[in-house]
Amino acid sequence: MTGFTEGTDPGHDDRQATRLLDLAAKHATGALHLKGGRGGIVYLRDGDVAHVESVLTPGVAALLLRPGYTEEGWAEVLPSLRQGGESDDAATAAAELLRSGQVSPAHLEVLRRGAMADAALAVLTALATSESMRSRPRFRPGERHWCPAGRTVPVTDVLTEVRRRTAMLARLAPGAGPDLPVDRAVRLWFDPVRLTAGQWDVVRLAGGSRTPRDIAWLLGHGVFATTVAVHQLARLGVVSLRDGPTGGAPHRVPLSFLRATNAVVGGRSLRA
């Protein structure tokens, strides 16, 4: 999902959300820098959210640049992107791509919204780390994101969307999470299973050590969407889930007959 649900009761009482709501009430324009393990930047324009950036999720620059690389070439530049976020070099390359006219305004807005929602979940989740709780948010008036902002989003709507996505992640199959390893299933439960191209890419990159976050960066997709896709593939029995970052016994997710029947539609076929 690339949009934001409307709402006036986000249910957040953490320091980051309180600071954002205070800036929204003042119709502030600038960037709120949030530190810690889930740190990032929230860009505001007249009190509304214009963009959100996180070192944990692919930004709009990564989403724009990924199609221009081979898988091998992208793997070479990926470490610097993941360490430095939307660096000056990445932002400059992405901005040049926009100036070339190769990306339509509509497609840019879809990518921008998706990156913003993905980063907001990482930056504003209520499950803050102890490091981020010790860090003091810093607001820099007038600072803007390099990507042209389309329609802004009210802070309350962003916080509501964060809560909605957090609740969705909590309902996923045991062992499914952005930072939990995923592996290909040793054998399939039924024959054949037909997958979409996007599902096939996730299965292909799952190998026991990669997490949904790793796979999302490799594909240039959203972390949240990739995590949900892993959950769905686990329901189909195509991938197995592990208990934590250090591994453990794979989870076999029960598969109903109805889900199996509905899943055998279009895409690639896998056989046991």
Distance between the termini: 32 Å
Number of domains: 2
Low-confidence stretches: 5-13, 253-272
**β-strand number:** 8
Query: Please, what is the average pLDDT?
Result: 81
Q: Which bin fits the share of residues in helices?
A: 40-55%
Strand order of the largest sheet: 3-2-1-4
Secondary-structure element string: HEEEHHHHHEHEEHHHEHE
Q: Quickly give the structural class.
A: alpha+beta
Query: Helical stretch count?
Result: 11
Provide the fold topology.
Elements: H1 15-25, E1 30-34, E2 40-45, E3 48-54, H2 60-65, H3 71-84, H4 88-99, H5 105-124, H6 130-134, E4 138-141, H7 155-170, E5 182-184, E6 193-195, H8 197-205, H9 212-219, H10 223-235, E7 239-241, H11 257-263, E8 268-270
Antiparallel strand pairs: 1-2, 1-4, 2-3, 5-7, 6-8
Describe this structure in words.
The chain is an alpha+beta fold. It has two domains: 156 residues, no CATH class; 89 residues. The chain is built from eleven helices and eight strands. The strands form three sheets. The chain has a four-stranded antiparallel sheet. A two-stranded antiparallel sheet has the order 5-7. The longest helix has 20 residues. The chain is globular. The C terminus is likely disordered.
